[in-house]
Amino acid sequence: MGDFSEIGKDRPRVNGEAKARGEATFISDISLHNMLTGKILRSPHPHARIVNIDTSAAEELNGVEKVITYKDTPKKHVDPMGLNQDWFILAKDKVRFQGDEVAAVAAVDEETAEEALKLIDVEYETLPYVIDPEKALEEDAPLLYEDKGDNIAFEYNIDKGDVEKAFKESDEVISERFKTGSPYQAPLETFNCMAKYERNKLTLWAPLQDPSKGAKLTYARALDMDPGKIRVKKPFVGGAFGAKLEYPQQLICSLLAMGTGSPVKMENTREEDIMAGNPRTNMTIDAKVGINEDGKINALQREVYSSNGARTVYAPAIMATACYRAETMYRLENVKSRGYSIYTNTVPRGCFRGFGNTQMLFALESILDMLSEKIGMDPAEVRRRNLHESGETTLHGRKLGSFAAKECVDKAVEEANWEEKRENKKIGVGLANGVHVSGNRNFFPAFDGSTAYVRVSENGMARIITGEADIGQGLNTVYAQIAAEELGIPLKKVDTAHVDTDIAPYGLGTWASRATLHGGNAVKKAAADAKDQLLDVASEILDVDKENLKAEDGEIFESDNPDNSVPFEEVSEQAMFKQGGGYVIGEGHYTPDTSVPEGGGEKKWNPSPAYSFGAHIAVVEVDEDTGEVDVLEYIAAHEVGKALNPMSVEGQIEGGVLQGLGWALMEDIKWEDGKIVNPNFSDYVLPTAVDSPEIKSIIVEEEDPEGPFGAKSIGEVCLDPVHAAVANAIYDATGIRMKTLPMTPEKILLKLKGKSLP
Amino acid sequence: MGDFSEIGKDRPRVNGEAKARGEATFISDISLHNMLTGKILRSPHPHARIVNIDTSAAEELNGVEKVITYKDTPKKHVDPMGLNQDWFILAKDKVRFQGDEVAAVAAVDEETAEEALKLIDVEYETLPYVIDPEKALEEDAPLLYEDKGDNIAFEYNIDKGDVEKAFKESDEVISERFKTGSPYQAPLETFNCMAKYERNKLTLWAPLQDPSKGAKLTYARALDMDPGKIRVKKPFVGGAFGAKLEYPQQLICSLLAMGTGSPVKMENTREEDIMAGNPRTNMTIDAKVGINEDGKINALQREVYSSNGARTVYAPAIMATACYRAETMYRLENVKSRGYSIYTNTVPRGCFRGFGNTQMLFALESILDMLSEKIGMDPAEVRRRNLHESGETTLHGRKLGSFAAKECVDKAVEEANWEEKRENKKIGVGLANGVHVSGNRNFFPAFDGSTAYVRVSENGMARIITGEADIGQGLNTVYAQIAAEELGIPLKKVDTAHVDTDIAPYGLGTWASRATLHGGNAVKKAAADAKDQLLDVASEILDVDKENLKAEDGEIFESDNPDNSVPFEEVSEQAMFKQGGGYVIGEGHYTPDTSVPEGGGEKKWNPSPAYSFGAHIAVVEVDEDTGEVDVLEYIAAHEVGKALNPMSVEGQIEGGVLQGLGWALMEDIKWEDGKIVNPNFSDYVLPTAVDSPEIKSIIVEEEDPEGPFGAKSIGEVCLDPVHAAVANAIYDATGIRMKTLPMTPEKILLKLKGKSLP
C-alpha cells in the first residue's frame, strides 16, 4: 500500500463541530407546521386479556385529534425477521408484557395527549405470567400464544462431529451454567420519530439503523402499503447500539399521521425506552467443554435458553448466533448446540452490540479459564493453541481472510505484563477473546451488498449518497476519508447526505458490523468511478494521456510534470458542462461472495466477507469488604484489517469496553411481580467516565482482502469479550468464579461469604 | 418511426388529479414550524432620493423579528444577465419606480408585518421621472443612473446587406410606427417563496422556472455565497409565462431567513405582482419594409425603443430579439436594426411568453399586409413566397431542421376558408406568422444542454430526475411519456421528482421554449440507458441474447417467443440486488451543436437546435357602434416537429392564443402621474373563457432531426402572431389599421370616427 493522505490518519468526526455547536439536527430538533404529539397507552400488566377498550372520553377531550386501537390498524403482522407472526402494531385481545402497546393518541400537545391516555378505559382480565425463560418451558407455564401449545418462539440445533465421543476422549471436561442479564442499549436519544402523510405517501423521519430494509420493507408490509409510497429520512442519530431497528412506535406514529392528516411526532420517555425498547436477550447457558492436556479443545456442547420477550423482533437470530459464532475463532471439530428462543412476559428482545455471540463468550471464555487451570496451562497459551489463522475455513464454513488473532493475544499479553500480573496476588488479571462478523447475509439473503454514489458538483464538492446509516459511530467520517483519498481532494471537500430512501440507493443499514466494510467498498468504488470520469476531462484540458495523470491535494496534474496542472474544481465544472449540466456521478456497487445456509444450519456457509478478532485483558482489584470490583486497567487488542481512522477505531474500542463493563458489573433490567423496577437512570445505573479504567487500545493491522483499503469491522467485537475478561480477572483476584451477570458487589460479596446466589 | 404506445397519444396531465383534488403542494401549502411572514416596503414614488430611513419604531413592534434595509444586504449586484450592475437587493440611495424595494420586515404574522411596514419612516426627496422610453432618450430627460450620462441600458445593432440600396430597388416601401403595451403575465399564483437558513446553508422554496441557473447561480453571487450552500426546491408552480425567473423577493426572503434563523415565507399581493413583477417590455417600433411586385421582401429596417424598466432583468435581450428573430422565418438579405433598451421609471421588465419577437411581429406582419394590398397580392401568398424551408440556413445563421412553414400557412388558409371569408365584408380575416426557438444558448454560453436521470426502483417504478422545471405547462407529462415509451412500461409507472438542486442535475430551466426538446432528449437517453441495463439482467433471466429482447407493456420478452417473458418489476428488483442495492440509474446527457455570436451580432450564429413555426388566422367582427372586436374564430396551425402529446400541444396553443388575445385587445398596465392605475384584477382585465373564440388548432408534423422523437417547441410560438393576426383581421373588417396595443374598443372607435389616438 502506498502513502495515504487520509486513510490511516486520525481524523475528528466530520460532523463533530455541528454536534458540538448544537447545529446538528436530530428528530427532536425538527418541528413541522401543525405537528401533533403522539403518545402510547401501554399495558400496566405483564399478561392480561383485553376485555374492552372505551376510547370515547379520550376522543372527546379538547385537543385530541385521534385515538387508535388494534381495530384502527391494518391488522397485518410486523414480523421483521419473516419468522413468527406474533406482532401486531397494537395489541389484539391480549397484552403480553408491561409496556405492551394498547392504544395511541395524537393531540395538539404532550399534556393533552397524556391527559387523553388517562381517559382511555381499558378493562383487563389479568393472567398468570412468566418472566424467566427456563420457567417458561415448564409444563404448566402460562402460554403467551395459546395456539402454539408451548412458549418456544424458535429452536436452533447444531450437530457437528461426535461430541459424546470427543468428551470421552478429553482429558478434562467442565460443564457449567451461566446466566447473562438484560442490559438496555441506553442511547442518549430515546426512540423517537415523526411521520407525515400527504397524497397517499408516508414520510417517516426516524433515527433508524436500517432505513431501507427495516423501515421501508418491514413497515410497508405491516402498513399494507406499496414500499414505493414510503419515504424514510434519517437525520442525525443520538446513539443506537442495535436498538434502533424496527420499532412499533414508528408504525403507530405513521398510523396517527395517516389518521389525522397532520404531521405527528413521538418520543419515548426514558421509562418507556427501558420498559418497551427491545433490550438485550438474557440467556441461561449450559456449556460443556472438553479439553486435552495439550490445550486442544476437543468438544463444545451448549444449551441456550434465551428470552425472546413477548414477541419476535430479532431474538431468535441472537440465540442462534450464540449457538455457532465462537467456532469462528477456535478450531473445533465436535460441536453440539441446542438453542431455544423462549417467549416470556417481558419486553421484546432486540439487537444490542455483540448480538448473541457475547453471551456465549461469557460462558465459553470462563470455562476455558477453568480448564486452563485444570490442565495447568497459561490461559493465554490455551487460546493460542486453538485460535484460527488467516486464510483458514472454519467448522461451519466461515472463510477467514485476515485473522491475526494470535498476534492480538500476544500483544495484549505483552502490554498487560500478563505473567508478572498473574503472579501479583493483590490484583486479578483475566483474558478473554472475541470474534465478530463484518456483515451478515442471513438477514436479507437476496444480497448483502452495498451501493454508493459519489456526486461531484461544479464547485468541486464531492457528495456521498448511500443508504448506509451513520448512527453516531463516525461512519460518515470514514466514508469521507475513503472518498477524499480516492479523489485526491481534502476531507473538507467531501460531505455525506443523510439517508433519504427516496434519493439514496437501497441500503441494508448499520448492523452486524457491516457499514465500514460493505459501504466503504461501495464508496471507494464510486469515488474511483467519479475520478475516472474526471480524469477523462482533465486529460483533454491538460493534453496529457489519462494514464500519466495524478490527483492529489485538490489538483490534477501530469505525473512527470506537476506544473502542468488544473484544479479539481475546474475539472468538475467543465465535466458538468460537457454532459449537459449533469454532475459527475460515480457509482460503486459491492456485493461480497457470501452465502446463507441451505437446508438449515448443518451445512457450511459463509455469511460475512470478513471476520474481526479481539483479545482483552482486564486487570481488577476486588474489595473483599464491599464486593466492589475496581477495574484498574483494561487492554484491548483488535485486529481490524486496516484502521481507516485509528482515532475512531480507538473510540469504538473505548466505548465498547465501557459499555461491556456496564453489563459486566452493574447494568440489568430487573423485574419484580412481573414489572420492571428500575426503568430510569436513577435505578438503572450506567457506568460513567468515573467508572472507566484506563483503556489501552492496541490496533493490529493485517489488510483484509475483502475490505476497503483492507479494513473490516470493529463496532461490536470490542464489546464481545468484556464480561468474560472481567469474570476471569475476578477469579484470578479472589478465586471466586462468577457465572451470573451483572457481577454486582452484592453477588460477589455473597460468593466471598460462601453463599449461593439467589 | 414505429408504433408508439405513449408518444403521439393524448394523455391527461400526470399530476392533473392531484391538482384537481387540491393535493398538489404549492408554496402556499407549505408551512414550516416557527415560520415568519416577510413583507416588503415599496416606494410610493416613481423616482426619489432616499434621504433617511428610520426603522426603529418597526423594530420595537411586538412580533417583529427583523427589519432590513440596503445596509443589511451584502451590497452585491444581482445582475442576472451579467450585463448591467444596476440592481441591488434593496434600494440604495434612490428609488426608481413605484414598487421599488426599500425595506423588508419579518414578523410573526402578516398583520404584524404590515403594521411594521407602516412604522418604517422613509424620508424621500422626489425627483422628476420618465415613463415613456422614447421620452427617456430626450436630452433633458431625468436620468435614472446619473453616472451613465443617459438612459440607455443596452444598445443593439444589426447591419446585413445594403438596406438603402434595397429600399431604392423595391417596388413598394412602407414605414410605420407601432406601439406595444405592457401586459402582465398574470399567473394564478403570484410570486412567492419560502427560505430557511440552517448550519450556513440556505434552502429556498420557490416556484422558479430556472432553479439552477437563475436561483442558485445568480442568487449566490448576489448573496455573496458559495452556490454549493444554496439549495433550491421547486414545488408545484401555479403558472409562470416567463415571470418566474430571478426576483428580488426571493433574495429578500433569504436575507430575512438568514437574519432571523427562522423560516420566512413571502407572498406578493396581486397589487405587488402587477406593480413590481417584471411584466412585458413595451416597445415603440419604427419599421420599414420594402417589397417587390412579385412579393419578395427586399429589405427590413427597424428601430426599436424598448422599455428596460428601472433596472435590468432581461429587457436588453428581449429588445435584441425584436431586432433579429423575424429573419428566422423569412428569407431576407438586407436588414438594418437599431435597438435601444431604455431605462424608465417603471417596473423592471422581464420575460413573457414570446420574449421580444412577438412585439416585432406586430409591426412586421401588419406592414406585410399593408404591402400585400399595395402590390395586389393575397397576403398569404406574400408570406409563402418569403418563408424559409426545412434544411435552410437563415441570414443570421440559424440552421433550420424541420420547418414546414408553408404547410402551416396552407392548412390554416384551408381551414379558415380564407378566400371565401376575405370576400365577406361583414367579417374580417387576418393572417400572421410566428417563429420561435427551441432553446437559446445566448443566456449561458458554457452549454445549452440538459441532463436527466431515470432511476428504476425495485418495484419497477421509474423516476425521472431532472433540473428542468414543470411550471404547470405539462412538462412532466411529456417526460413521463418519453420515459414510458423508451422503457416499455405504462405511464403510471413513471413519476418525475420536483426539482431540488441538491439532488437534480444542473438544469438551465424552462425558458426560451427549451424544456421539451432539451430535457426530452436527456430523458429519452436516460431511459434508453436504464433499459439497456435492465435488458442485460433480463437476458440472464430469460437466457436470451439481449438483441432478441423487447420491452413492452411492462414485460420484457423474447421477440420471437413472447411467452418467454419476465415482468419489468422482477427485472428491476433483480438488477438492484445484483448491484448491491443500487437502483438502476440511466443517465442521459444532451448537448446541442448550438453557438453564440462571437464579436457581436454581425456574425452568423445558431443559438437553438430547432425552430418552430406557426400561421394564425383570426376571424373577427367589429361593432362599429362600440368599437368592440368579437373574435369569431381563430385558426392556429403549428409545425411542432412531432406532437408528443397532441392534447397538450393543443392546450398550449389554446392558452397562447387566448393570452395573445388578451394582450391584443384589452390588457395593459397603465401609468398616470408615474403610478400604475390598474394594479388589480378589477382594473387590469384579463380575457376569460367567455372571451375565448373557438380556437382551431392544427398540428403539422415534420420530425425534427434534433428533437426527442422529432419534437420541438410550442410554448411561445403559439402566442407570437396573435395581435398581428387580429390587427390584420380588424383592418380587413373595417379598413382601420391599428398600430397600438391593446386594440381596445375606445381606440378602435376613435379611429372609426377618423380621430387620432391620444
Automatic annotation (TrEMBL), chains A, B:
Protein name (record): Aldehyde oxidase/xanthine dehydrogenase a/b hammerhead domain-containing protein
Domain (Aldehyde oxidase/xanthine dehydrogenase a/b hammerhead) ranges: 21-128
Pfam families hit by this protein: Ald_Xan_dh_C, MoCoBD_1, MoCoBD_2
Chain segments annotated as coiled-coil in the UniProt record: none
Listed GO MF terms: iron ion binding; oxidoreductase activity
